[in-house]
Amino acid sequence: MTERYPGYDVLSKRWSASWNAQTRRVIDARLAVPREPRFFSAAEWRTLNAVCDRIMPQPTDRPAVPLAAYVDQKMAEDLQDGYRYAELPPQGEAWQRGLQALDAEALEAHGDRFDTLAPTVQDALLTLMQQGSMTGAAWAGMPPKLFFAHRILPDITHAYYAHPISWNEIGFGGPASPRGYVRMGLDRRDPWEAVEAKPGDEAAARRKNQNVR
Amino acid sequence: MSGDPFAAPRAVDGRAPDVFKEGGWIPMRQYGEDEIVDFVVVGTGAGGGPLIHGLAEGGFSVVGFDAGPYFRPLEEFASDEQAQNNLYWTDERIVDGANPLTMGGKNSGKAVGGSTVHFAMVSLRFRPEWFKSRSLLGYGADWPLDWREMWTYYGKAERALSISGPVSYPWGPKRPRYPYRSHELNGAAELLARGAEAMGIGWTATPLATVSAPHGQSPPCVYRGFCRFGCSTNAKQSQLVTFIPRAIAAGAEIRDLAMVGQVEMGPDGRATGVHYIREGRWRFQRARNVVVAGYAIETPRLLLASATATFPDGLANGSGLVGRNLMTQSNQAVFGVMEQEVRWNKGPPSLAITEHWNYDDRKDFAGGYCWMAQGPLPVEWVTVQTGARGLWGQALRDEMMKYNHQVGLKMVGEMLPDERNRVTLADETDQYGLRIARVTYSWGDNDKALIQHALGQMQTSLEAVGATDIFRQEDDTNHLAGTARMGFDRANSVVNSDCRSWDIPNLWVCDGSIFPTTGGVNPSLTITAIAMRTADRIKALAACGEL
After folding, report:
1. What single DSSP character describes residue B32?
2. ipTM of the prediction greater than 0.90, yes or no
3. Domain parsing of chain A, residue ranges
């Protein structure tokens, strides 16, 4: 895979003036998320992991962000959003019912559990859910479309883009207090920001990124 | 480190946290529960904060309650989107209607300082005509306030919050220059300016409540860009670092982690105090006056939940309007990709603004809107990509890679009051055992027309600066207003121009709930200005024995 910000590691700024103590504490805690489920059953956990792999596919040449673990943490610790669509049950119940219903749909359509299906087949099922075209009894009145839009998408993608690995990928500066930024205008980069590789210039970008502190 | 702000109240034992010093404390007067204080104020945000301060300075005994914790910004505000969710009101609320509202971080804070702890600091004045929008512009409802008096209070609020803004403002009647110089533009703001100039409409640096030069113990803004969260340097002039410490110095008491669940009524039809839960126990504070300042969801929730045999439909609800005419503001956006590196996360997200369509009436719908430059951080940005475009999988990852080249314009638009948009009590209860709010919202035809107009204008602006891959975020909303509207008579409003309820003479409402209309600008400065006015009015009423 061609990286857009080769060699950039936001964690190299951990002891710089861009990170204060409270930020180090919360990022450390994030990186130490428990990898085993506390909320989901073994079957739900298998399905959840398979869903995460399709919603946010990750490259194999670096450690993966443990997305299912963050979803489990949100449910286990009941970290709420502050609102809930009237047609949806509370978030934990929504996830359990939704994962079970997805498995039931997989069995019904393909004779097997969701996590055992080929990626293209999984994607097709998720697309049906996104479109609201699933009608299995296991949904028990919960609209699949709302579950997809308000639980699956935000809970998984927020976990990914709250993780430093994703910040490296998109060239986000990450934590920035107390140093902040100085060069504000278009096409201006502070030396503690990621360098984007221009075509044919990846080595120079990598070298500069390795000096980002 | 000073422990967990959620574990136990901090404003106890005659002191409160000194937000400007790590581990520091400031002395705080405290009142006994048996003591009848002059005022209890429920909520410490943009409405509660200035009022608590003004009343304390006026010599009244005041206790301000907040359900949220008393944060120490320098030690506890991390540079992190997800960790900072702890500033929001994340207790469950049920949303329904044709256009259910997104709550939580979009509009609801739960902390001493309220939503101003996480607000993006945009500090704008209403267009004068909006205070008489029914008479002058033909929609909504008139306010029982005169814009000229409001102009004076806006000036006071801008000085109290050390607003950084331009020397001359392009729209509306003359106003003084802002107390602090405007902030420099970032790339995203430069593009707003270029787009506006290409379209032949005005733009300016946005007046912001973050200081551009030192003020007191606040250092100038360092442009770290985590402005929709807690400010870790205290450059942001939230209530937590402005009116609240000033109020405590003037003799007010603040009670953190203190959720008020009921206003108690006496047999004479006057409020006698509030029931609140703190440290796991329900308590009662006696008071001569009760001010509800919980914003447009919690304020009607408390008034409705305090119903008695005499007031079966809730307090101050003789008009039947408590909880009704809930308004949000349209917060749609248009985004695109630039050839250049924009790096829009640097600096406050809304450094430039155009209010052109708040002041130009050549349009076929009621109300106005502004738009501002954008700088969402990654979690907020992926919410746009998934919400507006439904992206996931590799397509989502590919789009997110363009982060540093994205540019965007986001509106704050006026939605019209509609009695069907409302807050009611659901049967579910929360962790305090209190019935949670049900928030019902549907856009009207005028709202939809305004949004489409704005989307078209913003798209034209982005096209003019050469943005590509343009897409629209059609479904976002943000601030709240209404639900306890101010008016001219008891049949058509909940409170009068002094924010005093028509039905119960010692019950007041002082927050965005009292807005009869919401205008096309962010509401916090107007809430603050009205709170400062209300404090003055209460002092004046007391002086002539009319409290």
Report:
1. -
2. yes
3. 1-16+174-213, 29-166
